[in-house]
Amino acid sequence: MTSAREQLIDLITSEAVFHGDFTLTSGKQATYYIDLRKLSLDHRAAPLIGQVMLDLIEDIDGVVAVGGLTMGADPIASAIMHQGVAQGKVYDSFVVRKEPKDHGRGRQVEGPDLAGKRVVVVEDTSTTGGSPLQAIEALQKVGAEIAAVAVVVDRQAPAKARIEAAGFEYRYAIGLDDLGLDPQ
């Protein structure tokens, strides 16, 4: 029987890697695009993502919640939360808005109270590390302790170096070599 990680790699390779000319969020040009949202919102892939990411973060002590900058992190955090519950592991999830709300309670971080709590910032795929770093800034303002950044697919770009230079552990589940792709 193939592992959840192997099944996820197969799905990403066959259904979420697009070849052509693309402009990434970073503004950088690329000859392929990994559209992980296509799969993170898919009933076949979401449980696999949850399992693979649980495996990636299970050895980090004291983590009570996972999440990150909306929108890429939302289905990843949800998959981890749901797969965790199925296995008797408790992780809440949270959402970090790009900007604080200008009405209501004016919150930028939605979900459980994270003051003094250990969290893992998640992302579907990361190139520059900008989204996780933006989420970290908002999380630190509410008093959360960042245990690590965990990414489903690492593009072997500046993200890892930037996040580690900022003082945070960076982990990823799947690399470009796993998908048969070269760094760009």
TrEMBL record:
Entry annotated with the keyword Transferase: yes
Domain of life: Bacteria
Keyword field contains Methyltransferase: no
Name of this protein: Orotate phosphoribosyltransferase
Xref: SUPFAM superfamilies: PRTase-like
Gene coding for it: pyrE
Sample GO molecular function, one term: orotate phosphoribosyltransferase activity
Protein EC: 2.4.2.10
Pathway: Pyrimidine metabolism; UMP biosynthesis via de novo pathway; UMP from orotate: step 1/2
Top-level EC class: transferase
Taxonomic lineage: Bacteria, Bacillati, Actinomycetota, Actinomycetes, Micrococcales
